[in-house]
DNA sequence: GATGAATGAGAATTCATTCAT
DNA sequence: TATGAATGAATTCTCATTCAT
């Protein structure tokens, strides 16, 4: 009833899926939860995406390529004139801030899921590659960028998992050693 | 039928849970799957562990304290007379070997799942702390150990998630910069 | 297997639920028992009624509005030309007849269950209100009707719960005092 | 371990059962809930009461005979020098007060359960009989007492189920008509 | 195309009761 | 005698997917 013509239906479903995963984790994604979040009939989600995996993949792919994404926001920190290390320190500090960790968690959700689901691995790999590529524009070589990404991921994990407060000096020192 | 008296039942359930998580990830853990893996009636798992979270916690606690655990194996690498960096390089190289990544994946399942499940967080944090403590015996200060753990975590994630082959020279260089 | 197209499915489930409650009380109502009574797969009951409470509410709402319901039958007694008191005496007498107390029990199951389940309360209250409204057409004021309903409820409870035989004279006297 | 000698164990279990039923209804009664409430091992409840029904019956019987019971409290209202009607008005008013309806609910739980469980019917009947006996000491004959009990039960039901505020004048008028 | 209904499997729990010790 | 463990059935509820319309 009603809503017969709705061209962006498919896109709205993907958007809703991102919202759901972002809020409740990948476990929270179901046809039902997405249909509700998108305000779309249940059958519509299975019509546009044959399986739930298809939907998940579409959603995660979009997260990575979305210009408004987490990743894109890195540039904001790096381009602002300060040194690379200073930019990264502020980036980490903001990520660790308790108010909105959903972006970071979304990234780690992807990593976690990719550990067990082969179809997601390329997406996770692409996500890591893009980070490296981005950082490589500011480092002396690719290897340094890769190391930096590893360090950043590890530091964020520690910040999120342990209760330790953000120690700016320590983080800066760590980054500085790698940047060289 | 039969098997009315069975001490160690509880322990066998925990062991089975670890096996299940190790093989199928945390998503694969259910009362049913554990009961099957432990060759125990379904009700038995819920008798000993009222909720699935309880079981998960017991399992992961044991992973951490298990003398055969991933963490314990680190000492093997570090104590073997070689330099810290050399030891860690070999550690990472072995972890990256494709034949048995289940130990490492198990660790990361734990870390990453803890981001969404509050009750797991303390356990994951403890696991991180133990790694830091262990490494700190070989570094000049705690901060260096913490940074090393972050770097190692990030590098392992990259190894697990991307198809890139293990690049010994690059890894050694990265570690060396942090060890200083 | 078969039966993919089945309109009225929902309605049949509600009917089955009423039958189950009527025969086994509210405690006897479960997704399983309803599915069996309606000859419908288990999942079908949960599809149409997400929670058991939803089903219970739908069932009881129907009991109230069913033209064949207990309540509707009251009119039969009241409209038959005799005095109000005489009509009520016969109503109670018939209700007390041991052959079919299931209708009355169903009503009281509802009332009393509503005391512990908030969502049922409005329905029970509505049921009471309708009785009052009905009786008020035959009494001098609303207050009398309300009192009559209370007395009738109490008398029926006594009839159902104690083994005492129906004492027509006593019941008539009681009603007469309230009708005034 | 410990707590080997505990003579009142049985009694404490009954007390706990009353507490559980009073708080969560008869549905809430289980070996587990009672064991927890009595701070007693699970096996202890099945040892002292072969089936759950036995325990329920013991508990409800005690509720009725307990000198501190709801029923006994009626005397407080009736003996205080005021007229029977005034006493009952205040009794009802207090019962309807929202702060502690657990006593009344417990009584109606008993009624409800007795509608469907034969073994409970004698207990409910006895409960009603005791109320009648008590009131009969203040009324001109047994029939009046029985009618009063019916009216009171019905009025309490209405008070508990509908949101209507307690209307003292109306209740007094209703009682007065029956008392005569 | 689009969708509400259908369904069977599986999820976590709860539980009364039995039994070995 | 007392009790922790055991167990199998049942509970509610969720879900991915299929299908008739």
How is this structure best described in words?
Four copies of one chain form a homotetramer. Helix content of chain A is 72%, strand content 0%. In chain A, helix 6 crosses helix 10. With 180 residues, chain A is an all-alpha fold. The termini of chain A are far apart. Chain A has helices at residues 9-24, 31-38, 42-48, 52-65, 70-78, 84-96, 102-116, 121-136, 142-161, 168-179. Chain A is built from ten helices and no strands. The longest helix of chain A is centred in the last third of the chain and has 20 residues, at 142-161. The A-B interface holds A 25, 27, 105, 108-109, 111-112, 114-116, 121, 124-125, 128-129, 143, 146-147, 149-155, 157-158, 160-163, 170, 173-174, 177-178, 180 and B 24-25, 27, 105, 108-109, 111-116, 121, 124-125, 128-129, 143, 146-147, 149-155, 157-158, 160-163, 170, 173-174, 177-178, 180. Chain B binds a DNA duplex (21 and 21 nucleotides) through residues 1, 3-7, 9-10, 30-32, 40-44, 46-48, 50-52.
Which features does this protein show?
homotetramer, 72% helix, DNA-binding, mainly alpha, 180 residues, 0% strand
| Distance, first to last CA of chain A | 64 Å
Q: Helix and strand string of chain A, N-terminal first?
A: HHHHHHHHHH
Total strand count of chain A, please? 0
Oligomer: homotetramer
Q: Beta-strand level of the residues of chain A, as a percent range?
A: under 5%
Structural class designation of chain A: mainly alpha
Global geometry of chain A = elongated
Work out the helicity level of chain A. over 70%
Instruction: Characterize the largest beta sheet of chain A: strand count, sense, and whether it forms a barrel.
Output: none
The whole-angstrom Rg of chain A is 18 Å
Give the largest chain-chain interface (CB within 8 Å). A-B, 37 and 39 residues
- Number of discrete helical segments of chain A: 10
Unreliable runs of chain A, pLDDT <50, ≥5 residues?
Answer: none
Query: Overall pLDDT of chain A, averaged?
Result: 89
